[in-house]
Design a protein that fits this description.
The protein is of the alpha/beta class. About 45% of the residues lie in helices and about 15% in strands. It has a six-stranded parallel beta sheet, with helices on both faces. The protein is globular. The model has no long low-confidence stretch (mean pLDDT about 95). The structure holds D-glutamic acid.
Length: about 270
């Protein structure tokens, strides 16, 4: 067993299966890294819960992942990123990368008219995390956020290419269009699976920002800066731990993301 620092896994977590969009982006960018993914399927969704609850869940999961020797934590959930990243950075001594900051930075870089839209869960919108992150980078942007709570269930139902989903997206986009945005952040881990449908509804003049892909880039930079890149030159393993048995969405997501899962197990986290 090679126990060098770099061979330790990247610990990734989400409220459920949706964070696999971040895993897919990591796989493409960093194919030799080992990944340990925890999906909190027992307690999903986080998008309707309070900050204190999401922070407690995030802490418990981070303890689990660091006990499993994770060299870096990736918060592959927009809701948990919005609410728990500062706390995790304080409490854990490995680097912590969320999805909000990289997505915010990419949006600020992409906009030309300084009007940015965000689609996310209610909890993420309520937190103001995207606005705060964008305004910290540039104070002349106007951010319009819209909660889109119907999208996650539609995606999990597999209605990714469906007229009903297209209509829901069009309805959610209306206030963002009205705000004359030229850049739209897909601020929920599930939404990259809807990227084609959102792009169709938004039209060519609105640039989409995929927070999963930008998060993967931030992970690469953080690994490099901390000398934590794996020295391996063979494909890394993907281990998935769920806190409750998976439903059909795991198979759908893994298939549409072209992900091979090397090991899948159920584990119950101890409550703290
Ligand atoms: N993973 C969550 C997010 O990215 C979406 C699902 C949920 O509400 O837990 O915000």
């Amino acid at each position: 067993v090679n126990t060098s620092l770099g061979n330790r896994p990247i610990g990734v977590f989400d409220s459920g299966i949706g964070g696999l969009t971040v895993v897919a982006a990591l796989r493409r960018l960093l194919p030799t890294e080992n990944i340990l993914y925890l999906g909190d399927t027992a307690r999903v969704p986080y998008g309707s819960k309070s900050p204190a609850t999401v922070q407690r869940y995030s802490r418990e999961i981070s303890r689990f992942l660091t006990a499993a020797n994770a060299k870096l934590l990736v918060v592959a959930c927009n809701t948990a990123s919005a609410m728990a990243v500062p706390l995790l950075r304080k409490e854990f001594d490995v680097p912590v990368v969320g999805v909000v900051e990289p997505g915010a930075a990419a949006a600020v870089a992409a906009t030309r008219n300084h009007r940015i839209g965000v689609m996310a869960t209610r909890a993420t919108v309520r937190s103001g995390a995207y606005e705060n992150a964008m305004l910290a980078l540039r104070n002349d942007v106007t951010v319009t956020s819209h909660a889109c709570p119907l999208l996650v269930p539609l995606i999990e139902e597999g209605w990714v290419e469906d007229v009903i989903t297209d209509q829901v997206i069009t309805r959610y986009l209306a206030p963002l269009r009205q705000a004359n945005i030229d850049t739209l952040v897909l601020g929920c881990t599930h939404y990259p699976l809807l990227a084609a449908a959102v792009a169709r509804a938004a039209g060519d003049h609105i640039a989409l920002v995929d927070s999963a892909r930008n998060c993967a880039e931030a992970v690469k930079t953080t690994l490099q800066n901390n000398h934590l890149m794996t020295p391996a030159d063979t494909d890394g393993r993907l281990e998935v731990v769920l806190t409750d048995p998976a439903d059909a969405f795991l198979v759908t997501a893994a298939k549409s993301l072209n992900l091979e899962i090397d090991n899948l197990r159920i584990e119950h986290l101890t409550e703290t």
